[in-house]
Design brief:
heterodimer; A: about 180 residues; alpha/beta; Rossmann fold; 6-stranded parallel β-sheet; 8 helices; globular; B: about 190 residues; 5-stranded parallel β-sheet; about 15% strand
Chain lengths: ~180, ~190
Amino acid sequence: MSENERIPAALIVEALKAAFRGQRKAPPVDGEPLGWVLSVPDTHQRSVIAELEGDADLRLLTCSTEDEANAIAAGLYIGGAEVALMIQHAGLYASVNTMRGVGLDGGVPLFALVGLLSREPELEPAESPRSMVRFAGPLMDTFEVPHALLETRNDLGLIPEYYALSRERSGPAVVFVGRETG
Amino acid sequence: MRPEDVLRAINEARGDALVVPTMTAVPEWRTIAPDAPSVACIGFMGGASSLGLGLALAQPERRVIVLDGDGSLLMQLGSLATVAGAAPANYTHVLFANGVYQTSGSQAIPGAGAVDFAGMAEAAGYAFTTRIDTLEELRIRLPELLSVKGPVLVELAVQEAELTPMTAPGGDPLRVQVERLRGRLADGD
């Protein structure tokens, strides 16, 4: 795969399924989904959102705000469901208090795929001239939230790894999506 | 209506429902229903409606009651559309409309006395909405409100509460509440 090739959406969906299966104690029953994906649509991940709309195993719920997505994720977790968020970096900034309250104070495992829209592929995010891209990682560092960067299909293992990490830590974990998905 | 009387009436009628109180409902609910399967929304402003939605989606066989405030709902007003879009049949959204942000000093909410929350919920697509002004009517209608196909929003005209999270702090930390309710549900409680 070339450095600039987009990760196919289907592979990201399969990685999410692997993440959910890795944490479930039993397979789904009676129409129960394998897990939920809470989305506030993200340009970088729009092909994944489209892929999820037709997926039989996962349930996609579009939320009005990222604050809602964090709180809905808490309710799903309490109720025994597997859940991931798909949002963009602007939404991460917008919802940081809810992430703090739910994920840090509440100890709720919040796993989020966060699109770094407008990130320059040739630059590390920390070197981006765009504040939205440059400060996303440091923001997570401030809140002691582990994070990683998804760029190529070789990185897909980060999804189940960081999903499991959110469960082990009982708190947030973020995988930044550094390039638009295909 | 006194909110304390409303909470007692809901506790008597709730059955095995899961309950999500927020702000001024929290301290009184803690006293009235200490053993109810509850998790409070404190510290992530306006999140009760969404927290309750997640519970309702994960536990579709259980009724979920959200004890929300008008000021709190205004902070996440888009959740009306999200709840309506998800269409949980087991969701009852009880809105305590006192017209103020009582916890922070009883400042008037935007549009106090003029905003029609039940009307907004209906327009967003809730399956059933109503406004109730008296405790007597609420007592009569609670069985319906807790069993009719949701999502339901009931707007209650209430006075200010006797207690707030500021005047009556305490209770278990959110982390403890989360794990306790998750454990109870996992055990089939």
